[in-house]
Amino acid sequence: MSMFLDTAKIKVKAGNGGDGMVAFRREKYVPNGGPWGGDGGRGGNVVFVVDEGLRTLMDFRYNRHFKAQSGEKGMTKGMHGRGAEDLIVRVPQGTTVRDAETGKVITDLIEHGQEFIVAHGGRGGRGNIRFATPKNPAPEISENGEPGQERELQLELKILADVGLVGFPSVGKSTLLSVITSAKPKIGAYHFTTIVPNLGMVRTQSGESFAVADLPGLIEGASQGVGLGTQFLRHIERTRVILHIIDMSASEGRDPYEDYLAINKELESYNLRLMERPQIIVANKMDMPESQENLEEFKKKLAANYDEFEELPPIFPISGLTKQGLAPLLDATAELLEKTPEFLLYDESEMEEEVYYGFDEEEKPFEISRDDDATWVLSGEKLIKLFNMTNFDRDESVMKFARQLRGMGVDEALRARGAKDGDLVRIGKFEFEFVD
């Protein structure tokens, strides 16, 4: 089994805030006592941190649930509960994080040490010391901690490489990578020898260096799932230059120019923006018979499909086996990289909007529906948050929650929808009677 994994779906749950406490001063020499319950501690965040030592998402194959610790409860003597430590999850460079429900990109992690909070911990609930007022100097009110954020994430690894090698199977991509870098890819005289991307670093004679990725071979129909399909095409999205390797000897009976058109069609079908990347055509296996004649014919067909004023992609004849022609190819690649900017991987429509933690006045704080058993059901993010943070063990907290519902207009809305005295109202699993 291959130890390379470039996609994973996981669930993350940030820690809940600690509950606030109800407590009172009872010392003999403190007249009238007073509230003394402290606040709960903050729940831990779930934080992704980029680790350049990781090369795959294999760590997420069996461990798919990540849960941060909750904050400690508030204590007597006005002491706050301890905040929980953040849960650190290490991911490889080039990891894209998407929301599994919406498909929106949350973040793209590419720099070593880069951190991003993918799930925010809940704040601690307030103790009764926070609710003391001149009218109510001894409140028996406290809040539960805010629930931590919970979400399902889709992780995609798109390896970081400056240059990508593409082409049909057995055109010599792995051989080329092995002679221009110190990488040791598997090389064999059969199709799909390479089943995972391989990376290597190139250093030219003039001192420039760049990273090269050798991708599994493409065949016609790859964008529809034929062969290894598009499973590894995502790894070419970060590259700035494409080296299009072509078997100029036509050793497998295919026409080199038809190969060139077929691969470009698959790249375009997968992602049209891949065609924005500049290409260098690498005419490989020039040590084989008839390669030179095939190269001349290839150049004629290529020129015939370009307008007079269009610039043809550069062609470099090489032999990966005898190592001829490699230096000019690498120098030209380094020169092209210098003048080629980074390509924008995601546009604004694919990115998740920045999270806003305030309350939008235009947003409805609650929604009302009716269940099959005629029970009124209240829902809505703000309402559920208030419900979860209410301590129903204390009568004063329950009354406070009732006042909050009334202030949000829940009573009026239920009355307008036809709710009558004694009707059941449900929030989550909690039910109560409507009193008109």
Oligomer description = single chain
Structural class: alpha/beta
Strand content: 15-25%
How many β-strands, per DSSP? Answer: 18
Q: How many H/I helices?
A: 7
- End-to-end gap: 66 Å
Which stretches of 5+ consecutive residues score pLDDT under 50? Answer: none
Radius of gyration from the alpha-carbon trace, in angstroms = 32 Å
Bin the helical content: 10-25%
Question: Can you give me a brief rundown of this structure?
Answer:
With 436 residues, the protein is of the alpha/beta class. The chain has helices spanning 173-180, 256-270, 291-304, 326-338, 381-388, 395-408, 410-416; strands at 7-13, 46-50, 65-67, 87-91, 95-99, 105-109, 115-119, 150-157, 163-166, 198-203, 209-214, 241-247, 279-284, 315-317, 367-370, 376-379, 424-427, 430-433.
Kindly describe this structure.
With 436 residues, the protein is α/β, with parallel strands linked by helices. It is built from 7 helices and 18 strands. The strands form 4 sheets. The chain has a 6-stranded mixed sheet with strand order 10-11-9-12-13-14, with helices on both faces. The longest helix is centred in the middle third of the chain and has 15 residues, at 256-270. The termini are far apart.
